Request: fold
Amino acid sequence: MKWHVSKKQIEIMSISSRGSIRDAMQAIDRGALGTALLEEITTKEFIGLVTDGDIRRALLSGYGLESPVLDIPRPQSKTAHVSMSAEEITALFSDPVRVLPILDDEGCVCDIAIFDKRVRLPVAEPQLGTKELAYVMECVLTGWVSSAGQFVSKFEEMLAKSCNSQYGIATSSGTTALHLALLALGIGPGEEVIVPSLTFIATANAVTYTGAKPIFVDSEPTTWNLDPILVEKAITARTKAIIPVHLYGHPADMEPILEIAHRHNLRLVEDAAEAQGATYKGLPVGGLGDIGTFSFFGNKTITTGEGGMIVTNDSDLANKMRILRDHGMSPDKRYWHPVLGYNYRMTNIQAALGVAQMEKIETIIAAKRRIASYYTTHLGDIPGLQLPREATWAKNVYWLYSILVDESKFGLSRDELMDHLKQQGIDTRPLFPPVHTQPIYQSNRSLPVAEFLSENGLSLPSSVNLTESDLDRTITAIKKAQKQILDT
Reply:
C-alpha cells in the first residue's frame, strides 16, 4: 500500500458530481489510477468515485458519453479518515477496492491510499486507458467496426508522419506487413533476401512466403544488429533485397547497409517491429529504406492487439500494397480482382486503439528510457552482466531491456538466473533463438555472435506500467541471486 498522492493529482482526478461520463473518462485518463473522484461543485465534499470498469459496463449497457455520471450503477464507495492508522486503512482494502480516498474533517479528499502489490512482474504488457476505451466505444456505437472507418486512415497518417513518410498502409500484423512489402517489390521464387539470424522468425518466414530464400547473416556484438561487413559478403547474383531488423529497440547501423544496397541495386525493407520511435542519426527508423514495417502485437511499444503498418515514400509501391492487402481488388471496379491478393486488412477497432496509443507514444517512449536508465544505474556495477548499449548515432527505445550473463563472472548461468527470478515472481524472456538453428531453417552453418547472444541473453521486465518499487524488486532479486552464490 502507498499514499501521499499530491494535491495536484487529486485535483485532476476530481470532477463535479454533475459531470458526464465523458468528463469522468477524461479525469480517469488524467489521473492514471483508473478512478475519478466526484465532489460537490461548491463545497468540494466527496460524493463518491467511479472507475474505468464502472464506465465500461455502463457504456456496454447503453449509456452515452453525455449521460450524467451519477446515473452509472456502481458500488458504494469506501473511504478512510485522515485520523486512521496505516493498519486501519490497510484493513479496508479488498479485491474490488484498490483506490481508497482519505477524507479530512470537512469530508473533502486530502489524500488517496492505493493498493499496489504485484504478485508477478511481467516482461511486457500494454498501457491502455480511457482514451483507448472511448475510441473503441465510438466504433461500437457508430457501427464502424470492420476494416472501413475513420480510425484506419487516421492511424495510417499518424504513423507515416512519425516516420517522415508519405504513405501508411495498415495491416493485420507485422508479419503480413513484411509479406506485402516483399510482394510489392516483386520478390519471388529463385531469389534471395538477406536477413539477420538473430530476430523473431517472422522476418524469415515472410521471405519464404514469397518463394524466395532467406540468407542468414550474423550480428555485430555491440548493438546485436545485422553486421554490415557480413552483409556485403553474403550478396550473390540472386540477392534482391536486405531486411535489417532494429532489434530490441536499438537501430541497426543503416548508413553502410544503405550504401551496400545502393551499390548492388538491392531493395531495402526495414523491420522496425521492435523499435518504433527509435532514431538513427536523428532520423526515425522505418523511413530510411524503400519500405518500413511495424508490429502492434500486445507486447510492442504501442499496440492494437494484433496489427501492423507499412510506410513508404513510393506512391507506386503504396498503391500495390493497398491492392494486395484487399484481396487484389481493383480500386476502380468493385469485386474485380486483376491480381492474386490477400485479406491483410486492419479493423477500425484496432486502428482506434492505435490512434489513442499514438497520441501518447512520446510519453511511452520516455517511460521506456527512464526504466532503462534506472536499470543501468543500479545494475551497472554487477560483475558478469553486460547491459544494453546505445550507440552515439542512435536513440534506443529499449522495447525490452535485455542483458547478457557471463556465468564465469556472475556465478550463475543465464538459465539459472531466469529460474531464480521466476521463483521470486519475476518474469524474464530469453533472447530469440537464431533462425538458422530453427527446425524449418536448420543448417550446418555457424553464426557465432548470434548464437552467443541467444545462449546468454535475457530480457527483464520492461513494461511502462512498472513502478520504481517494481524495478527495485527485480534489481534486488538479481543482486541476491549473485550474493547467494558468493556466500556458498
User: Anything to note?
Assistant: Residues 7-114 form a domain with the CBS-domain fold (CATH 3.10.580.10). The CA atoms of residues 384 and 410 lie 4 Å apart. The chain has three domains: 7-114, 130-358, 361-487. The longest helix spans residues 468-487.
